[in-house]
Amino acid sequence: MDQEPTPRRSALDLTYPELENELVAAGVRAFHARKLWSALHRESQVDPCQREDFPPPLARWVAKNLAPAAPLAPVRPSVADDIPSSDGLTRKFLLRLSGGQTIETVLMRYPGRYTACLSTQAGCAMGCVFCATGQMGFVRHLQPGEIVAQVLHTQETLRAAGQPGLRNLVLMGMGEPLHNYDSVMRALEIISDTRGLNIGPSKISISTVGVIPGILRMAEEKRPYNLAVSLHSASEEERAALVPASRRWPLKDLIAACRVYGEKTGQRILFGWTLIEGKNDSPTDAENVAKLLRGIDAHVNLIPLNPTDGYPGAPSAHRAADEFQRVLQEAGIPSTIRQRRGIDVAAGCGQLKAARSGARRPEPTA
Questions:
Q1: Is 221 a catalytic residue?
Q2: Same domain for 340 and 260
Q3: Is the C or the N end of the chain the one with fewer CB within 10 Å?
């Protein structure tokens, strides 16, 4: 299968200043940008040409530039499938992009809040052996607007059900966010803009397998989002077997980059540890994690493996997870054993793989 072409530019790709500049360049007053921005993002207007409350100069610009097939028409994915989990706490959406490729977005309900898990690529080039997306291969990066559109879709879903809006976002769906750095950061600037979706940076987490240039760039640019690093092993050799990207960005260099990040930003780093029975769940493994992270302001999220067809491992038993956590706590490292969510609809971490409604399986291109 040939790699899909990059989608055309859309109004959802524009930051607020860029939208303002587009209007001013066409002779429309800059203050009209606020009304259009609110329509596109706060109100999730799919077709802004249908609005009857725009002042004439803005309405004319919208009709020329944002109508279907117009140069900046908002591009929204269609819903190829909508799969609720049996416990009612997780809902997985299979979204079809304009080029026909599919991505997955997951909506999760927790007490008093909703969290959306977003995709940043179609497929993934990192190849983590226990991750269904990594087993699929890489097709293409998502555009900023395609990331924003996932948030708009989940917000609309909650609004239609009379539920409160999203409180948290995690970028740990399909793809490696720091492999698509520029599009991700632009999308997050749009999503966190207080005039629109207004999801605060402190409520947004970016998960990476350890793309060191991206971590250092986040530190240098002092990006305000939470950083989550998928660790999974404290041994260079064992981690490289689980996370092939570790061969390019070795563990010792990754930890050094995390220290730089912590020093420059002052922010705590979340470290993800997938607990695999008999592989990385012993007390000795926990002791090695504690030694590795010594001196870093860290919190470890322990996540029992979500089984996939392409990896034979099994999740750790509750006793092993509890003992692992005990060792970390005695070493002074806070940790949480995370709930596995959406397992029956393949929506858990490492399971994002389209398998219904004619979803197209990506073929590796990188």
A1: no
A2: yes
A3: N
Place of tokens 């610009």: 61
pLDDT tens-place string over residues 22-31: 999 999 999 9
116 within a domain of the structure (yes/no): yes
Contacts of 132 (CB under 8 A, 6+ apart): 308, 309, 310, 346, 350, 351, 352, 353
Active site residue 104: yes
Question: What pTM, to 2 d.p., does this model score?
Answer: 0.90
Domain assignment present for 70? no
Tell me, what CATH number does 27's domain have?
1.10.150
3-state secondary structure of 214: helix
Any idea what the CATH number is for the domain that residue 272 is in? 3.20.20.70
Identify the active-site residue in 20, 22, 104, 146: 104
Angle between helices 144-160 and 181-192 (to 10 degrees): 40
d(CA 127, CA 107): 24
Q: What is the pLDDT of residues 276-319, one digit of tens each?
A: 999 999 999 999 999 999 999 999 999 998 877 778 888 999 99
Sign of CA dihedral 337, 343, 346, 347: negative
